[in-house]
Amino acid sequence: MASSLINNSHHIDFESVFRLDDASMVQMFETLIATGLKEFLGCLAVFYEDALTEFFANSSVREDAMVVSTIGGTVIEISQEMFAAAFELPTESLIDLTDVLKNFVFDARSLFSDSKEQVSMSCLKKALKFHYRLLHDILAKTIYIKAGSFDSVTRDRFLLMTTITFDVKINWSSLLFGVFKEMVTPGSRQAKGYAIQICVLLRNVPGLELGESKSFPVPRILNEKTVHRFVSVNENVGIKEVADAPRARRTPVKTTVSKKRPATGDDEVAPVIKKKRTTKGKPVAVKRLMVEEPDTAISTSGEPVAEDATGEREPVAEVAPGDADAAIEQVLAQLESVFKHQDADRGCAWGCRRGH
After folding, report:
1. Could you give the CA distance from residue 11 to residue 221 in angstroms, rounded to a whole number?
2. What are the φ and ψ backbone dihedral angles of 61, each rounded to 5 degrees?
3. Taking the CB of residue 184, how many other CB atoms lie within 10 A of it?
4. 3-class SS at 354?
5. Hey, is 306 helix, strand or coil?
6. How would you classify the pairing of strands 67-71 and 313-315?
7. pLDDT of 80 strictly over 90
8. Tell me, what's the pLDDT at 271?
9. What share of the chain is helix, strand, coil (3-state, %, to 5)?
10. Which residue intervals make up region (Disordered) (predicted)?
11. 336-341 contacts, C-beta under 8 A, 24 or more apart
């Protein structure tokens, strides 16, 4: 468990960082000393893993606001005054960060920005200058003990960065001890930390056996070498982001095609073929019947003829005017012959229709 308490924490070797050739970085570390955090951030970098594990397992906050615990049967009591005295923390001045003057916040939005644009109070860390990115990480990992990603700047951390940068006095005793109490409160979502700071307090308890000590991991100590590495990594990340940025692609423009039927010529229009409506069913063959009525007319040539159903005209025998009865009989005989032919044709047509 103790190893997890130092995974994200920083210890600052102030003597080493002041040898940096980066004036902005050196100035940022000087502001941390000016605000009163030198002993808290630069204390002895050793911790006692077994003692820390037992301390957090048995710790709680008493009604009088003291942090209490037991290690090996020894009762541990830590008050805010003891906490402040161990690290020479300021005990007066600003407590509520919302009291920071607005003009400081406005100036900080331009001062912290890595571009010509002002940053918002809640922004991405990569929008800040390198030394303010490092200041943000120190506050997030060693003051507020945040777990998880550190890519985003919160409003509280932005205000705290503003107070440190513009030398606004802060009651660090109240702020840090408040975070400490949250750590030891059962069920709290506050991540646990302050490993080397708690061990400083435990060493002052008379007769307490702490066991074997361990050195703080070198990569977690901010010195001249690790700060150079921090700057180099951030520069390479910025270059890689620019190189990996996808180029803008031109959006293909679709040609709109008219849905109207194009003309086949300058003045010609393609004919529209309409479908004929047809009835369903089997086709019926229809044969046209040729019915002709008898013709009793007399030929203009002077020779009487009779026309049968076939359309052929036959000569009619000439009758004497005086023989009226014989003439009538002859006409009746011719008519009877014509009607016989017509009846025969009708019978044939009717039979053909029924056959189909």
Report:
1. 5
2. -110, 125
3. 20
4. helix
5. strand
6. unpaired
7. yes
8. 53
9. 45, 10, 45
10. 295-315
11. 337/306, 337/308, 338/294, 338/306, 338/307, 338/308, 338/309, 339/294, 341/308, 341/309, 341/310
Q: Name the 3-class secondary structure at 277.
A: coil
Q: How far is CA 230 from each of CA 52, 139, 315, rounded to the nearest angstrom?
A: 29, 16, 135
- For 90-105, what is the mean pLDDT? 91
**Nearest residue to 1 via CA among 55, 65, 47, 53:** 53
The mean pLDDT of 91-113, rounded to a whole number, is 93
- The pLDDT tens digits of the residues spanning 230-260 come to 999 888 765 544 444 454 455 555 555 555 5
- Model-level pTM greater than 0.70? no
In DSSP terms, 11 is beta-bridged to 221
Task: Give residue 286's pLDDT.
Answer: 43
- DSSP, res 59: -
CA 267/CA 250 separation, integer angstroms: 40
| Residue 12, pLDDT above cutoff 50 | yes
Closest CA to 224 of 22, 36, 1, 50: 22
Closest CA relative to residue 142, chosen from 155, 124, 128, 160: 160
Among 50-64, 131-145, 304-318, whose mean pLDDT is lowest?
304-318
Please report the pLDDT score of residue 273 as a whole number. 52
Using an 8 Å Cβ cutoff, are 306 and 316 in contact?
A: yes
- pLDDT single digits (tens) 269-315: 455 555 555 545 444 444 444 444 444 444 444 444 444 444 444 45
At 147-164, the pLDDT tens digits run: 777 889 999 999 999 999
Query: 6 with 47: CB under 8 angstroms?
Result: yes
DSSP string, 144-201: S---S---B--HHHHHHHHHHHTT--B-HHHHHHHHHHHHHSTT--PPP--HHHHHHH
- Round to whole Å and give the CA distance between 186 and 67: 12
Question: Do residues 138 and 11 make contact, with C-beta atoms less than 8 angstroms apart?
Answer: no
Beta strands in the chain, from DSSP E residues, in sequence order: 11-12, 46-47, 60-61, 67-71, 74-78, 214-215, 221-222, 305-307, 313-315
CB 55 within 8 A of CB 198: yes
Distance CA 155, CA 322 (A): 145
Residue type, 171: N
Tokens for 276, please give them.
């004929």
